[in-house]
Design goal:
Length: 417
């Protein structure tokens, strides 16, 4: 559990200004985050009180401070949780190139209407050690379909035809998506990077946004889940992967092979549906958790011969859902640029139907697309992940059915939200 002790962010610049005889003003700047707070010189007393960790509630009870002052100091990263100081000294994220959606700094979140929007976060965590693992987020961004790529908060502006699923998204139905950039700290400790990911996920979720991580290896999933779980009463996880990712580590630590072992520790996780598992596993203490009643397994062979509704039947439509998509769930000939490819796997059409069903029929509160390696410009794994990401982002938009190549039907599809 996170403590609630806050301290003053290091390396602030503090200046007093004002004409002689006039009321003096105090300006506090956090250059790391590009924020500024202005107030009376009495603000110095507040800063002095937080030179050592202190709970915000106890300070407000002990001192008479203006309403909203401490919240403003937190939003400007003047006061930060004591345990996060070192991980925040680098800042949280750098702008992404090219962004998926409107570029937005975490300090600008209060300036936009986030309700129902998506927040894309690049998480180039690379515990795998495979060449190109850190370039996964950039590869997915480069491969994102140009016809869908949002250039602003309400985009694409014109009509958009989805020829895969025979849909027409009508004009002025905007795709609301913001890109918070790439998390700082590639090469830093896993814990430090994880704290930054958690900050961004919590910030997005607090504005009613749906955070979507681009990886990077599969360990980032736990950082997202850890930040999301306190915001929901219960959670279902749809996990597409060639591997169960339930393997223990000795000593016990988070790896790309066990984020769902960590997730099962939280009783709010009421169901994990794992789709696409295949090949051989030695059934010993490593996989004893497969007897866990909250786990449902659908093999790749089963998923290929069933409908999306049948595959996802164990997920209740009234339970908040997290989608975790490991690109090695795909057949290697479809998506070869991944760290641990396995023969067999899902075809493109099956994966598209599954992601579309999740996006259209389940209340998604977070997602990730991971395990893409950057191995050059012709990157099929990145292209698949980007296409499926686009399907997720379009999942909340109404559409009409295409009855011919570019002609829409008379009315909305019954599945239109």
């Amino acid at each position: 559990m996170r403590s609630e002790g806050h301290v003053v962010f290091p390396d602030l610049s503090i200046a007093e200004f004002g004409d002689l005889g006039a009321a003096r003003r105090l300006e506090i700047r956090n250059h790391t985050f590009g924020t500024r707070v202005e107030g009376s010189p009495d603000l110095r007393q507040v800063l002095d009180a937080f030179r050592t960790p202190r709970r915000l509630e106890s300070f407000e009870q002990e001192y008479d401070v203006p309403d909203g002052l401490l919240a403003e100091l937190r939003r400007a990263f003047v006061l930060v949780p004591a345990e996060d100081v070192e991980s925040l000294r680098l800042g949280l994220a750098s702008p992404a190139h090219p962004p998926i959606g409107r570029p937005l700094r975490v300090t600008e979140l209060d300036r936009v209407d986030g309700d129902g929007a998506y927040a894309v976060i690049g998480a180039a965590v690379d515990a795998l050690g495979f060449p190109g693992g850190r370039g996964g987020p950039a590869a997915i961004r480069r491969a994102f379909p140009q016809s869908v790529r949002p250039s602003g908060p309400e985009s694409p502006a014109g009509r958009l035809a989805d020829l895969d699923l025979r849909r027409l998204y009508p004009e002025a139905q905007g795709l609301r998506c913001y890109d918070l950039g790439d998390v700082h700290g590639v090469g830093d400790s896993m814990a430090s990077v994880g704290r930054r990911i958690g900050w961004l996920v919590r910030a997005a979720r607090s504005r009613s946004m749906c955070p979507v991580l681009l990886g990077g290896d599969h360990s980032v999933t736990w950082f997202a889940l850890e930040a999301l779980l306190p915001t929901v009463d219960r959670l279902a996880i749809v996990h597409l992967d060639a591997h169960p990712d339930l393997y223990p580590a000795r000593p016990a630590r988070l790896t790309h092979g066990n984020p769902f072992r960590f997730a099962l520790r939280d009783r709010k996780v009421e169901r994990i549906v794992q789709i696409g598992l295949r090949t051989f596993e030695r059934f010993d203490d490593r996989l004893a958790l497969l007897d866990e009643p909250r786990l449902t397994c659908v093999t790749a062979l089963e998923a290929e011969s069933a409908s999306a509704e049948e595959v996802l039947a164990a997920v209740r439509p009234d339970v908040p859902c997290y989608l975790s998509f490991d690109v090695d769930v795909m057949a290697p000939e479809v998506a070869p640029e991944t760290g641990t490819p396995v023969p067999g796997g899902l075809g493109y059409a099956t994966a598209l139907r599954l992601v579309d069903h999740v996006a259209r029929h389940l209340p998604v509160v977070g997602a990730d697309f991971v395990e893409v390696l950057d191995r050059g410009t012709a990157n099929r794994a990145a292209a698949v992940a980007a296409r499926l990401l686009a399907q997720l982002l379009l999942g909340r938009l109404p559409f009409t059915a295409l009855t011919s190549y570019y002609s829409a039907g008379d009315g909305p599809n019954p599945d239109t939200p």
